[in-house]
Amino acid sequence: MIKISLPANLQALAGSSRIVELEVGGPVTQRAVLDALEARYPALRGTIRDAVTKKRRPLLRFFACEEDLSDIALDAPLPAEVASGAEPLLILGAIAGGRDG
Amino acid sequence: MGKVRVLVGTRKGAFILSSDASRKRWEIAGPHFAGWEIFHVNGSPADPDRLYASQSSAWFGQVMHRSNDAGKTWETVGNQFQYDGTPGTHTWYDGSPHPWEFKRVWHLEPSLTDPDTVYAGVEDAALFKTTDAGQTWNELPALRTQKTGPSWAPGAGGLCLHTLVIDPTNPDRLYAAISSAGVFRTDDEGKSWKPVNHGLRSNHIPDQDAEVGHCVHRIAMHPSRPDVLFMQKHWDVMRTDDRAESWREISGNLPSDFGFVIDVNANEPDTVYVVPITSDSLHYVPEGKLRVYRSRTGGDEWEALTKGLPQKDCYVNVLRDALATDQLDPCGIYFGTSGGQVYASADDGDSWEPIVHDLPAVLSVQVQTIP
């Protein structure tokens, strides 16, 4: 089981807790993890990545194992600690300023 | 005795304010979708318990919600708004071509007869429609691909389709207002559109009476008189008597003809309401006084309505989708401010009271009158 940590707004939308545990079949990549997350929580479709291009939304970041994984290739393997469930993949909103309050 | 339901979208969630027809005591439910910007909540005229909400966020994009029980419970529905074909470009602020990019849903206009059918006005300006209660949204592309489309440029709030008005006597006829392009009309349910801006003058474009390029902020119609529309433009309050073929200015004695909102009294088609705002650089009410202005003559002559509204040290704004009327007699008028107040009048605007005064900044106010 891999673990994903969701920001508060997405927890509310999914009706989930902060840490979500998921089974991912095959190589643990960003694409595979997000496919599994969206399959479990369809309300999250389009909120983390574009529904068509699968590109990460620009104000979201992906961190794990003290690394910024936001820009790694969609099909590149995530760290072994994420794949084993020892460490969560953190999805978080950038600190983008509060322009709109 | 009927009921009134006021659907309020704010920068940090949605609220539903309910009262009986006396409009004296209000129940306040919310926040729904706490922490999210709710651009618009609207209900189906054919089934008032069917609500739709547009939730938007710079971080997480567009989310759409539907309720079948008047907002007690909600479910997410489809949030994919894909432009038809290869979208091409519109004009950017600096005059350069810029690709069309979906950003958010500004306005939801449910069909008058079918609860599963809803139009959505979006940014970058385009019209979408669902016929399956929000599960899927398809563009009606003839508006965006109308020949003037590539010249449309955004206003300060973005290139948004913010107002949709359906002619109740002819559901094939719709009006769409876009900032800052102007008003467009279809007579064949979106298969073709034409710009209908004759008579508008705007000093921010080189040709002041051009076919398009006008920053229309809001249009409104009384259902009994669908050939007449009223408009609050960036500057100027306008009126048409011929289905928008031609417009004339009716700003008259208003203290400022800049503003965002405009609406019509449910029982008097020539009674119109606006909230003047100081200017395009000072987005708050003039002189620190919150005043609704009412014309009982279809424009030109306006009276200030102040009873119950703050008349000193008030510097709020009222955004374009944030004033609405109910269908009762006397007519109720409701508006929300950037300061989080929702004011209501149950007597055609003669007097006002805040229903609630400490919400997040209000983005939209919609009213349902329930028999």
List descriptors.
heterodimer, A: 101 residues, alpha+beta, Ubiquitin-like (UB roll), five-stranded mixed sheet, 3 helices, 23% helix, B: 371 residues, mainly beta, Methylamine Dehydrogenase, Chain H, globular
Structure commentary:
The complex is a heterodimer of chains A (101) and B (371). Chain A has helices at 8-14, 30-40, 80-84, and strands spanning 2-5, 19-22, 60-64, 67-68, 89-93. Chain A is built from three helices and five strands; from the N terminus they run E-H-E-H-E-E-H-E. Chain A has a single domain, classed as Ubiquitin-like (UB roll) (Roll), CATH 3.10.20.30. The mean pLDDT of chain A is 92. Chain A is 23% helix and 20% strand. Chain A has 101 residues and is of the alpha+beta class. Chain B is mainly beta and 371 residues long. Chain B has a single domain (41-317), classed as YVTN repeat-like/Quinoprotein amine dehydrogenase (Methylamine Dehydrogenase, Chain H). Chain B is 0% helix and 41% strand. Chain B has strands at residues 3-10, 13-20, 27-32, 37-43, 51-57, 61-67, 75-77, 89-91, 97-99, 104-110, 118-123, 126-130, 138-139, 160-166, 174-179, 182-186, 194-195, 216-221, 229-233, 237-240, 248-249, 258-264, 272-277, 292-295, 303-305, 323-325, 333-336, 342-345, 353-356, 362-370. In chain B, strands 3-2-1-30 form a four-stranded antiparallel β-sheet, with no helix packed on it. Chain B has a four-stranded antiparallel β-sheet with strand order 4-5-6-7, with no helix packed on it. In chain B, strands 10-11-12-13 form a four-stranded antiparallel β-sheet, with no helix packed on it. Chain B is globular. The termini of chain B are close together. The interface between A and B is medium-sized, with 22 and 20 residues.
